[in-house]
Amino acid sequence: MPFDHQNTPLSAEQARVLATLLEKQRTVPDSYPLTLNSLLSGCNQKTSREPLMQLAEADALAALDALRERHLVIEVSGQRAMRWEHNFERVLGVPSQASALLGLLILRGPQTAAELRTNAERWHRFADTSSVEAFLEELQERSADKGGPLVQLLPKAPGAREARWAQLLCGTPVLPAVTATGHAAPAIGLADLSERVALLEAQVAQLQERLDALTRSLGD
Known about the structure:
single chain
């Protein structure tokens, strides 16, 4: 059975762990497979990550357990500590060039084909942007019997010269809303939305207190 990312998408934590393993296999092969500490450092690094994350050890272990159940990661014995490696290409049935592009899209968010070619320099050297686009188009046109599309070409943002590509392993990407001026407004993440709701609830509570106080004063 193909990897079912459409009905069961990866969580943000699972995707970060998986993509970090993909990255480190290529950029620091001498340290791969990764120990839990090395994996955590890679997940939480402050460069080449969008968004930035701060996973705790428990978060990484939970993500690894979920990924292992889906055969996406494998635990291997090390000399001093257990190590982890990905099984991404075999499970998804994609070549190494395509897995490099998917890993970059997970770690850095939507990018143009030209940006992907530049950012993939340490992962895989693509001959030109056209070769990047060819792999992306293959990933977008994957048939249902192979698990369906893994990437999507997003609508071109107002004022942008090129359209960006997004990965679909974490579900359908949230498109930014377009403001009245024609500019794309930043998409609101769940954390931002929760913070706004909490702020509105606090403001409502304050207004209720003022209303109660006013009612009591009028009653007096």
